[in-house]
Task: structure prediction
Amino acid sequence: MPNSTELNSNRVFGAPLRYIQGPGALNEIGGVASLAGKNALLVADQFVLDLIGGAITESCRRSEVSVQTALFNGEITPAEIERLCSVVSASPVDVVIAAGGGKGIDAGKAVSHHLNVEVITLPTIASNDAPTSKIFVVYAEDHRLLGVQHMTRNPLAVVVDTGLIAGAPKKLLLAGIGDAISKKFEVAQCFKAGAKTMYGARGTLAANALAELCYTTLLESSQGAIEAVEQKQPNASLEALVEATVLLSGLCFENGGLSIAHAMTRGLTAIPETAHELHGLQVAYGLLIQLQLENRSAGFIRELRQFYAQTGLPQSLRDLGLEQAATPEQIKTIATQTLTAPYIANFERSLEPADFVAAIEAVESYV
Result:
């Protein structure tokens, strides 16, 4: 039976108000924006504006929503957020449309938070689950991570046009798979550790169930989805996979929590050779470390590595950018820096640098 602390702890489940996905879903943006008002601000970089800016404006016009544009320069700093907000300082804004990849969407979230208006996220790639969440990341001018900030609520809507996703590079889809595949195991560890979620509450049974569904969907749909991207044509597998990587994965991490796989990104960004690899690919490698620390069976690890090999997910530090075998110094740096991540506490037992060194060496020596 649950103890009294569990019974007295609040459970919170948060999510976007609406999630819309499919080929041509971009055309729904105007109708969704009209739910918030008549004045929209589109935040995107030049590439995204050239790609879909016209379609967004036309969809909004049909719904009698006016659109202003704030051009994002590519890095989310306090100064850039202030500059983007100043673009519309004298104009009414009812809703922000945050379009693009992870940083573009986070920039739009940051602007909506500072203007205290609704945000609609419109991802043009499926490399992570940022579109569903209420958090955004801010960096210093020298690209150092300053911290994670929270909006007061999740997005009004997430609009995912799988026609756009199918046309994006395959590596970005692989990053989305890598970011999502860890959630089943990270959420499970958070439950064991009694960790708090992004809402400062206990995780929900729903998050646990969604994490299982997310994992199963990834195993079943990744190959077909990769084929869809290679052919630049959406199919049923891509639709299922995108729902898993964008919606399910996002609901899992906010309502269930994160653990070692995501903590590993702190260590992997501490050495130059792996620092600039895509977040989701770092997480995929981090999951192998987490499973080693969980003492998973050799048979289970072998089956998961087969999936990694079939899809192209990284299985070693060389796959993340190292040109030769990792040195003891590099492994020690990754281990010690990983321990500085806040998610390190969301594990079934306390960990020391030596635990990570041993786990990394075991993963690297796998044949």
Summary: Residues 205-231 form the longest helix (27 residues).
